[in-house]
Amino acid sequence: MSKLDLRKELKPFYTAKRKPAIVDVPAGRFLTITGRGEPGGDAYRAALNALYSVAYTLKFRCKKEGRDFTVMALESLWWWDAPAAPGEAPPREEWNWKSMIRQPDFVTEEMAEAAKEEAKAKKGLPEIDRVVLETFDEGLSAQIMHVGPYSEEGPTIERLHAFIAENGYRPRGLHHEIYLSDPRRTPPERWRTIIRQPVERA
Questions:
Q1: CB burial of residue 137 (10 Å; 0-12, 13-18, 19+)
Q2: Which of 70, 111, 115, 119 has a CB 3.0–4.6 Å from the CB of 58, allowing a cystine?
Q3: Which tens digits make up the pLDDT trace of 170-191?
Q4: C-alpha angle 138/144/147, rounded to 5°?
């Protein structure tokens, strides 16, 4: 049985260079969970635990049916309730986030709901009720690779936004990060994160 690897099929959107570039991201189906609170805090960790529980349950259910696939990298959208001045941010406990894992196009809402029920029966995690399958259509975006700790993303984000302005675009939508490294196994100085910002012509 062959295994579908979306990261290879969608390689231009799950790789990036340290030099910013414009990409046109195709729509896709994602398992998502939305919340508020400090990155790495209790609420965030509980949400990710629920999201991964559903994602892997769904993967193994599909594998039993002869449609195996690789679980994709974690992605997150980040935003604040009110705009902040450039270079500033509200307290981390006031950050909003939507964490996401891309799914093959053949995954349906019925399949996702069945995986949620099975995962909840096994794990008993109340946050599983908040996991949903939805279509996300990002479209035209600018992206760049950040290498290093998440806390040091600032200069990389500044370079990305300078590139956007210099090339006749303006930001739209939400700040998007794709986490390509496992922080449990990789030292912080080697963490690789794609930072993406949807754009439109200015």
A1: exposed
A2: 115
A3: 999 999 999 999 988 999 999 9
A4: 130
Cα-flanking dihedrals φ and ψ of residue 105, to 5°?
Answer: -65, -20
- What single string gives the DSSP state of each residue in 83-121? ---TT----GGG-EEEEEEEE-TT--HHHHHHHHHHHHH
Q: Which residue bears the tokens 């760049």?
A: 144
DSSP category for residue 190: G
- Domains of the chain (ranges plus CATH)? 13-26+139-202 (3.20.80.10), 28-136 (3.20.80.10)
Helix (H, G, I), strand (E, B) or coil at 161: helix
| CA–CA distances in Å: residue 43 to residues 2, 46, 56, 113, 114 | 37, 5, 20, 22, 24
Look-up: residue for tokens 């193994």?
60
The sign of the dihedral angle between the CA atoms of 13, 6, 36, 43 is negative
Q: What is the pTM of this model?
A: 0.95
Measured between alpha carbons, how far is 176 from 142 in angstroms, rounded to an integer? 10
3-state secondary structure of 158: helix
Q: What angle do helix axes 109-123 and 42-64 make, rounded to 10 degrees?
A: 120
b/e for 54-90, b at 16 or more Cβ within 10 A?
Answer: bbebbbebbeeeebebebbbbbbbeeeeeeeeeeeee
Distance CA 156, CA 177 (A): 12
Whether the per-residue pLDDT at 1 is higher than 70: the answer is no
